[in-house]
Amino acid sequence: MTHLSRFDAMGCEVLVGGATAAELEAIEELFRVREQTFSRFVPASELNRVNAAAGEFVHVSESFRRALRRALELASETGGVVDPTLGGAIESAGYSGDFELLRPDDPRPASPGAPGCWKSISVTRAWIRVPAGVRLDLNGVVKALAVDDALELLSGAGFVSAGGDLATRKPMTVALPGEGAVQLVSGAVATSGSGKRRWSRDGRIQHHLIDSRTGLPASSPWEQVTACGNTCVAADAAAKVGFLLGEAGPDYLDERGIPARFLEPDGTIGLNAAWRAAVEEPVCI
Amino acid sequence: MAAVKERPSRVVQARRRAQSAKAALACLGVVLFAASAALARATSAGHPKHRARSLSAPKQFVQIVRENQLQAGALAPPTAPPEAATSQS
Q: What pLDDT, on the 0 to 100 scale, is given for residue A272?
């Protein structure tokens, strides 16, 4: 049985399997540094410094530039369905502080958010420019990227999971939302949805997955979407796209050969063809 | 009675010759500078022979890397009790 270690970071529990004491220390440090760099809720974070300087070119660290580049590449690949420029829209929806401190039933109405505009970001070798009035939110990419980078710190077979976004170096069984389990042979699995981080403004349900076309919390028939990727960043992006595209999500992911599982609010579970093919048809080698 | 055309003095003639010589020298200088610059550009290793091109990766390579970003991992039917769970965070 793999030795398990746990710690809290980025507002969730991080689970590490198969790490030595030194590797675990390095992984904790990695998550701590990333949180200090990218958190919207750490006043001195690099993200907040960049957002405060919107409209001007700002010098950024290699780590920040890498995360932003990855986010922009995913935005490009998904046609802007996932977009790193929705920080303002999330705040407009009411998610402007630590989630634990949010009022679940705030009587104030949410203000309309701005649509995504990832194409307007300029990135050079070490400088970036965000248009005036635009606020970045790299939370999704950063957590998944931290999982991928933490996995690289393991010398042997093991896995890293942060808030349910999981990447592994060994085949392992992973419990799924709702019910059931699957064997993750290689790569990563991640789940996105609106069931957990949700709150109410003026009686209207809000959540953190924003439709980049409207700047408002997305309306989706799914409560949670689980997807499998070759990296945690890929799995997380695929799960988000599956949720944000709604009814079109399963086909979109099937066209790319990405297995995905769709949990509806009433508990109904749907699988796309790629998931069914992977789980229901054993491969003979 | 026809007017007698006065010849410019020798001093004025000398000034004109001097000005022409200066102009000719200046033109020669410009031509020599341009010729040496062109020769240096064509022969010296330190000068670019072609229009500068970006050192970034070829477009095809970038496209392949981008496509890989959304590649799937591998799943199979479960064979053991779960060691961890995936859920929204």
A: 96
Using the structure block, give the residue that is written with the tokens 């592994």. Answer: A168
B81 touches chain A (CB under 8 A): yes
The alpha carbon of residue A198 is apart from the nearest alpha carbon of chain B, in Å, by 11
Is A237 near chain B, with CB under 8 Å? yes
The pTM of the full predicted model, rounded to 2 decimals, is 0.80
Check pLDDT > 60 for residue A282: no
Average pLDDT, chain A: 92
- How far is residue A52's CA from residue A282's CA, in Å, rounded to a whole number? 52
| CB nearest B74 (choices: A186, A238, A282) | A186
Q: Is A228 on the interface with B (CB under 8 A)?
A: yes
The amino acid that residue A182 corresponds to is V
- Residues contacting residue A169 through CB under 8 Å, at least 6 positions apart: A18, A151, A154, A156, A157, A158, A159, A186
Give the gap in angstroms from C-alpha A22 to the nearest C-alpha of chain B. Answer: 22
